[in-house]
Amino acid sequence: MPQLIPFFFFNQLLFSFIILFSIVYIFSKYILPLFTFQQVVRIYITKLSKKN
Amino acid sequence: MASKAGGVAVDFARIYKSLGLGKETIAALQAFRKRNTEAKRLASHYASQPTTVDLEHYRSVLKNKAVVDEAEKVLKEFKPVTYDVNSHLKAIETFETKAVEKAKETEQAVDRELKELRATLANIEEARPFDQLTVEDVGNAHPRIIEAVATMVSKGKWTVPGYKEKFGDLNVL
């Protein structure tokens, strides 16, 4: 039944969405804030050491 | 100078110097010592005085014997007044408990200070040089930075103004 062929890709589609959303979540929650944190800390310690 | 009383010798010079007492305490100690020596001096002075009256001598010297008789009668009837020293003892006891309490408090304060100093010393000894400092160390030292970053991120602010100008940008696009 050739009309059923698209449904065989449902598996792939479902998993790609799951992985995509989990990657977005992990990056936005755990990885990318570290970069902002690093920038803030860099600015902070340069401001501290620039007092002379 | 060690003063000996009742077989107990107190080395005051050592107390003044080695214990690191406060000015107030040393002054109080010195005043106490002064009072003690003064009392001792007075006690020895009065103990050496004669306690009997030679009435026969007065009888032979004075013409008016009746006066001497009367004096003898008064002397025989004299009874020393008994003093109630309990109130004094109580005051001394309260003073002692207060002093002990204060000493304990001081000891605790000194212990606390010592602990803090030890912590500071360990902090100094374990401190890493500036070039080995990590971002986490700074975050641990100032938790407010972590909070600030969390609020920044929750508001969708991912960049720090002035960062690009100072440190450059590695973005290709």
TrEMBL record, chain A:
Q: Which GO terms describe its molecular function?
A: proton-transporting ATP synthase activity, rotational mechanism
Main site of residence? mitochondrion
Q: State any GO CC term.
A: proton-transporting ATP synthase complex
Superkingdom of the organism of origin? Eukaryota
Give compartment(s).
Mitochondrion inner membrane; Mitochondrion membrane
Q: Which UniProt keywords apply?
A: ATP synthesis, CF(0), Hydrogen ion transport, Ion transport, Membrane, Mitochondrion, Transmembrane, Transmembrane helix, Transport
Membrane spanning segments where?
6-27
Membrane topology qualifier: Single-pass membrane protein
What protein family is recorded?
A: Belongs to the ATPase protein 8 family.
* Role: Mitochondrial membrane ATP synthase (F(1)F(0) ATP synthase or Complex V) produces ATP from ADP in the presence of a proton gradient across the membrane which is generated by electron transport complexes of the respiratory chain. F-type ATPases consist of two structural domains, F(1) - containing the extramembraneous catalytic core and F(0) - containing the membrane proton channel, linked together by a central stalk and a peripheral stalk. During catalysis, ATP synthesis in the catalytic domain of F(1) is coupled via a rotary mechanism of the central stalk subunits to proton translocation.
Subunit structure and binding partners: F-type ATPases have 2 components, CF(1) - the catalytic core - and CF(0) - the membrane proton channel.
Question: What's the name of the protein?
Answer: ATP synthase protein 8
Q: State the species of origin.
A: Lyophyllum shimeji
Automatic annotation (TrEMBL), chain B:
Sorted alphabetically, which keywords does the UniProt record give?
CF(0), Coiled coil, Hydrogen ion transport, Ion transport, Membrane, Mitochondrion, Mitochondrion inner membrane, Transport
Question: Which Gene Ontology terms describe the biological processes this protein takes part in?
Answer: proton motive force-driven ATP synthesis
One Pfam family per UniProt: Mt_ATP-synt_D
Q: Per the record's keyword annotation, is Cell cycle included, yes or no?
A: no
Q: Which residues form a coiled coil?
A: 100-127
Give the SUPFAM superfamilies listed for this entry. ATP synthase D chain-like
**Lyase keyword on record:** no
Broad class of where this protein is predominantly found: mitochondrion
Which GO cellular component does the record give, naming just one? proton-transporting ATP synthase complex
Q: Which GO terms describe its molecular function?
A: proton transmembrane transporter activity
Q: Where in the cell is it found?
A: Mitochondrion inner membrane
Q: What does this protein do?
A: Mitochondrial membrane ATP synthase (F(1)F(0) ATP synthase or Complex V) produces ATP from ADP in the presence of a proton gradient across the membrane which is generated by electron transport complexes of the respiratory chain. F-type ATPases consist of two structural domains, F(1) - containing the extramembraneous catalytic core, and F(0) - containing the membrane proton channel, linked together by a central stalk and a peripheral stalk. During catalysis, ATP synthesis in the catalytic domain of F(1) is coupled via a rotary mechanism of the central stalk subunits to proton translocation.
The entry's family comment says: Belongs to the ATPase d subunit family.
The name under which this protein is listed is ATP synthase subunit d, mitochondrial
What organism, scientifically named, is this protein from? Answer: Lyophyllum shimeji
Encoding gene, per UniProt annotation: ATP7
